[in-house]
């Protein structure tokens, strides 16, 4: 890349992912006359060409059209006439979870239906791109109510958090390479969990395999997650086996209301100490770490993102 003293490019040390967002059935109030307009002309059109009229606006956006509709955002900016109306404005959100986040929007006005481009964003919508689709809902005194659908993508930094591990301190530490999404899991077990191996996509988009952590065992369990399926809960038990503390059973639950397992304890021995972890809403269990002495899975923890 060419360099210049006024420009600096620094590799980003974190990890990001594409986050899709969509807001439907929003209603923009475009009020251009009457006692309470939400736009104001600041320059007049040229008498010869008709160009140049510039209007600032503070349009309101609601989540419905009835008397109980809630104000969710404002579209603040300007539109000017240059043969057609050109719009450039920020959608500033006022609802919890997106408060003070913005979308930057540009585009030409259309009659009753059309699209504007999302060309940027801040806060929860950092580096957003997408479209705002507009459709006339109804005409009212002094203006229009326009139905909006906002659909786009933004870049969200990923933060991995660890939970536990559960089990003993035997063996060596085993970890994963910045996991982002689990694709499949293989568990070998006989009485206890002999080993775990899983494939995953890491935060650089690379397909990786971790494990097997442990040794061969006769009973085999395989989990292949379907499209859009993520693990939301992991539970199990830990026990002492052959004088070694290790993971005895494992069970996995996904967002598709599917349960896999429990695996282990095929000898129906007394269950050991239970453990369980559930990902918070909007997050997933994306990987594993733990300990193994190459005979047993001595301990297991999860990454959440």
Automatic annotation (TrEMBL):
Its main location: secreted. It is found in: Secreted, Extracellular space, Apoplast. Keywords: Apoplast, Lectin, Secreted. Pfam families: Dirigent, Jacalin. InterPro entries: Allene_oxi_cyc_Dirigent, Dirigent, Jacalin-like_lectin_dom, Jacalin-like_lectin_dom_plant, Jacalin-like_lectin_dom_sf. GO terms for molecular function: carbohydrate binding. Coiled coil: none annotated. It comes from the Eukaryota. PROSITE patterns: JACALIN_LECTIN (PS51752). GO terms for biological process: phenylpropanoid biosynthetic process. The keyword Secreted applies. One of its GO terms (cellular component) is apoplast. Residues 160-305 form the Jacalin-type lectin domain. Homodimer. Dirigent proteins impart stereoselectivity on the phenoxy radical-coupling reaction, yielding optically active lignans from two molecules of coniferyl alcohol in the biosynthesis of lignans, flavonolignans, and alkaloids and thus plays a central role in plant secondary metabolism. Belongs to the plant dirigent protein family. This is Dirigent protein. It comes from Triticum urartu (Red wild einkorn).
